[in-house]
Specification:
Layout lengths: L1 H14 L3 H26 L5 H32 L4 H7 L1 H28 L10
Helix pairs in contact: 1-2, 1-4, 1-5
């Protein structure tokens, strides 16, 4: 959902750039980060053991999130210094949103597979005993 919403925002920004549109896309992006991405990221860790959870959370929060922020800003600066307009850059980010959407879809399928495997491995619940 998040890549699709942001891709729609980039299409709007690419077709008609304006400060109000830019602000609206920025508000949508930040609200999706806190309202959707955060809880979904935490949900993904429910199907792994505790050690994997804490090691991977630290890696994702530092290397992946911060690394992607730095990389995206370098790419943006490079494109701007190459003479591309903001509207052109917005159109260039659409394939990135497509890759993100595909990655999210694959991750969701892997999560469902792991969750199904975990429920298959869990012992069957015992009936209530009356003492």
């Amino acid at each position: 959902m998040v890549p699709a919403v942001l891709a729609g925002g980039f299409v709007v920004l690419g077709s008609s750039m304006g400060l109000v549109l830019f602000a609206a896309v920025q508000v949508a992006q930040r609200s999706l980060n806190y309202g959707v991405i955060g809880p979904v990221k935490e949900m993904l860790f429910t199907v792994v053991d505790r050690e994997t959870k804490y090691k991977s959370k630290n890696f994702i929060d530092t290397a992946v999130y911060r690394g992607s922020d730095v990389t995206a800003s370098w790419i943006f600066k490079g494109l701007v210094s190459s003479g591309f307009s903001l509207a052109q850059i917005a159109w260039m980010y659409l394939p990135v949103m497509g890759l993100w959407g595909y990655g999210a879809w694959r991750l969701g399928r892997l999560y469902n597979d792991l969750r199904a495997q975990a429920t298959d491995d869990a012992p069957a619940p015992q009936g209530r005993r009356r003492d």
